[in-house]
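Researcher: Please translate sequence to structure tokens.
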Amino acid sequence: MSDELTAPPQIAREVFAGDAWDRARQFAELLAGPGVVRGLLGPREVPRIWDRHLLNCAVVAEAVPENVRLVDIGSGAGLPGLVLAIVRQDLSVTLLEPLLRRTVFLEECVAALKLDNVEVLRGRAEELVGKREFDVACARAVAPLDRLLKWSMPLLREGGELIAMKGERAAEELAEAEAQLRVSGARTAELISVGHGKVEPPATLVRVVAGPAPEPAGRRRRKR
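Model: Translation complete:
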């Protein structure tokens, strides 16, 4: 298999419409070049940047409400957060990533793509609890769902949504996270698929809606 960046499929012109098109092409080149050199993406992934990475992340926008504050937990190479910011200029996107070499790459991408709806933060989700609140949290290939719930739910307003990109084990992970869903005060949790007719197979997402913040255990015990 060649390790060169392939031409974008025709459907990409539809998914990355308007100003998003040039930014998507530039981001693809950044991923295939500096992204690989710095170890954010494996060389074997380069021929699949468009279908497996850019398009697969872009269709997640179908599940994201308009004009929301979105945090991409463990953003890595900017997937899916940076792609969502390219596709949806109405979003206010925070790319949260603990590793310095990755945040440097993300900052360079944001500057090169001239994205004024994106901020890059170096840190972990636990460090933002009580300091920042978001409408949507998203993540891709970061952690099992039960652990992701622990990180993301405290960052969401009541009624906010966790949108986790998951693969074939999505249903199993959702079942295994039942206890953590209760502890986290989740209102609803469901599997959805997006990107029908645009990516094959369609992308599978776990969508969890946050309920009221769980009351601290000590406070609950004092009630009689």
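Researcher: Any highlights?
Model: DSSP finds nine helices and seven strands in the chain.
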